[in-house]
Amino acid sequence: MRLLVLTLLAVCCLAAGLVEGVGSEVPEKSFCMSFTTQKLKINRIKTYIIKEGSMKAVIFITRRGLKICADPQASWVKDAIKSVDNRARKTIIQTKPTEAQQPTRTAVTLTGR
């Protein structure tokens, strides 16, 4: 009898955990309720996310981790996206390969015996 009760309790806890995980995704979909009216400084923006749906939005993530919703049709938002993308490209281009990725300059000669 105890085994049955413990099994039922374990199944209920597992089900509650799964339902909670699914429920925590809902606020992410309805994240933006309004857009900012203030222009953000480009150097404070770390990255961005473009959200599609009933309310299209660009969510800028600042260096401090704040998430700020902006109108994707605003000219300053388009300029900010371009700047962040250009900054990301420069970082990729300027990244130097590590020692493991450096080409080797050692010649190897194989001889048959």
From TrEMBL:
The cellular location(s) given in this protein's UniProt record come to:
Secreted
Molecular function terms in GO for this entry? CCR chemokine receptor binding; chemokine activity
Domain Chemokine interleukin-8-like intervals? 27-84
Instruction: Identify the InterPro entries for this entry.
Output: Chemokine_b/g/d, Chemokine_IL8-like_dom, Chemokine_XCL1/XCL2, Interleukin_8-like_sf
Which keywords, in A-to-Z order, does the entry hold? Chemotaxis, Cytokine, Disulfide bond, Secreted, Signal
Q: Name one GO biological process term.
A: positive regulation of cell migration
User: What Pfam families does the record tag this protein with?
Assistant: IL8
Q: What is its main location?
A: secreted
Q: Which residues form the signal peptide?
A: 1-21
| One GO CC term on file | extracellular space
Family membership noted in the UniProt record: Belongs to the intercrine gamma family.
The role this protein plays is: Chemotactic activity for lymphocytes but not for monocytes or neutrophils. In thymus, mediates medullary accumulation of thymic dendritic cells and contributes to regulatoy T cell development, playing a role in self-tolerance establishment.
Name of the protein in its database record: Lymphotactin
What organism is recorded for this protein? Answer: Dipodomys ordii
Q: What is the lineage of its organism?
A: Eukaryota, Metazoa, Chordata, Craniata, Vertebrata
The encoding gene is LOC105985206
